[in-house]
């Protein structure tokens, strides 16, 4: 039986995260993979990235930073991926692999990857390719149900709370809009496990055509649930009964800090190519970040009974921000800024307020006020 993984998304993050873990597991003798990487939208001719995934020599991931107080600077040639496909151009081939070979699906389709377009998401006997990722996944799942009905584990890595639940809901809605076949929904509930996960690793630079530069720190937390299992065993993969502590620490300390710096960068005429490390070399901005954590963020965690964990995570986060080897561009961090303010700042303020935080959080509230939440936002 195949243990193939289909990875939706060609991002440098997944190259240095999930695919990296699978590579190390394979090197350790585990029977996992290989991985088929799928470009979800657009033509593969736009870049050489999709074709480059077929290189049997793999691609480089450079790990640079500090681990356990010691410098780390090593290159790993990742060979867990054996092909790249475009969903648009190679739909028939992708459909066959998905229906017959896949055992796991991994996705990281960006900040708005679960958006659907009902008027362009049709699928059926004409074998047209739906526009959105959830509709593509729904069409492929219908093909698998009809072809083999084998169980499947889906591990979404998009950074949103309840990502597996939200993705499943979108898939079900897409299937229903396309005259969902009788029996499909029952099979989906019984045999397809949509996991909820949290991922964490700063992947600061791309290497062309594929490859990445990343920090040593990495986490892939996966919530226990019926049918859910990780694709491999790895020190950075954690199975947990509760994702919320991991989510809150990452979203409301590391990611919130990134969004705070992006807000400063956008509004205060900073250099276009400025990095996290460079902006924090400005003593005034470093003091503002330290004050934000101390006066606004930590009281919110303390009110929720996570004060000690948050203090430790703030220290780790600042070490990661100041990694002397990584050039993490704030221009990259600032993409989809409004959506990030919603998930990282608005959500934190709601959480802290409900717990009775001792801080009014004036700086965070000022940022949140500039980006009011839309009523239609999830």
List the helices and strands and how they pair.
Blueprint: E1 4-8, H1 12-15, H2 18-27, E2 35-39, H3 49-52, E3 59-67, E4 70-78, E5 81-86, H4 91-100, E6 102-107, H5 133-147, E7 152-156, H6 163-177, H7 184-191, E8 192-194, E9 197-200, E10 203-206, E11 212-214, E12 219-223, E13 237-240, H8 244-267, H9 276-280, H10 283-303, H11 307-321, H12 330-333, H13 337-354, H14 362-370
Parallel strand pairs: 1-2, 1-6, 2-5, 3-11, 6-7, 7-8, 12-13
Antiparallel strand pairs: 3-4, 9-12, 10-11
Structural features, described:
The protein is built from 14 helices and 13 strands. The protein is of the alpha/beta class. The protein folds into 2 domains: about 5-240, 3-Layer(aba) Sandwich (Rossmann fold), CATH 3.40.50.720; about 245-370, N-(1-d-carboxylethyl)-l-norvaline Dehydrogenase, domain 2, CATH 1.10.1040. It is globular, with a radius of gyration of 21 Å. The mean pLDDT is about 95.
């Amino acid at each position: 039986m195949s243990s193939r993984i289909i990875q939706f998304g060609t991002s440098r993050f997944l190259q240095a995260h999930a695919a990296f873990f699978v590579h190390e597991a394979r090197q350790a003798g585990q029977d996992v993979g290989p991985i088929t990487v799928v470009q979800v939208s657009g033509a593969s001719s736009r870049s050489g990235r999709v074709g480059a995934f077929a290189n049997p020599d793999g691609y480089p991931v450079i790990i640079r930073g500090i681990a356990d107080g010691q410098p780390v600077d090593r290159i790993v040639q990742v060979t867990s991926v054996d092909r790249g496909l475009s969903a648009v151009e190679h739909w028939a081939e992708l459909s066959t692999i998905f229906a017959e070979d896949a055992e796991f699906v991994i996705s990281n389709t960006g900040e708005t990857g679960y958006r659907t377009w009902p008027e362009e998401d049709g699928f059926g006997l004409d074998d047209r390719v739906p526009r959105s990722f959830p509709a593509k996944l729904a069409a492929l799942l219908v093909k698998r149900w009809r072809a083999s009905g084998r169980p499947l584990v889906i591990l979404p890595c998009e950074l949103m709370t309840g990502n597996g639940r939200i993705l499943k809901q979108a898939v079900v809605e897409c299937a229903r809009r396309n005259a969902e076949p009788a029996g499909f929904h029952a099979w989906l509930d019984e045999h397809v496990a949509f996991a909820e996960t949290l991922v964490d690793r700063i992947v600061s630079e791309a290497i062309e055509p594929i490859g990445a530069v990343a920090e040593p720190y990495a986490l892939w937390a996966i919530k226990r649930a019926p049918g859910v299992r990780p694709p491999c065993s790895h020190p950075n993969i954690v199975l947990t009964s509760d994702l919320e502590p991991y989510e809150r620490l990452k979203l409301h300390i590391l990611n919130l800090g990134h969004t705070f710096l992006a807000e400063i960068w956008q509004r205060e005429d900073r250099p276009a190519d400025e990095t996290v490390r460079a902006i924090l070399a400005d003593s005034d901005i470093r003091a503002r970040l330290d004050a934000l954590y101390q006066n606004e963020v930590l009281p919110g965690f303390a009110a929720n009974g996570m004060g000690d964990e948050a203090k430790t995570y703030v220290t780790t986060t600042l070490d990661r921000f100041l990694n002397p080897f990584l050039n993490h561009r704030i221009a990259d961090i600032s993409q989809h800024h409004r959506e990030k303010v919603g998930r990282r700042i608005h959500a934190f303020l709601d959480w802290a307020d409900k717990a009775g935080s001792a801080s009014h959080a004036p700086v965070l509230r000022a940022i949140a006020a500039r980006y009011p939440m839309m009523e239609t936002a999830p």
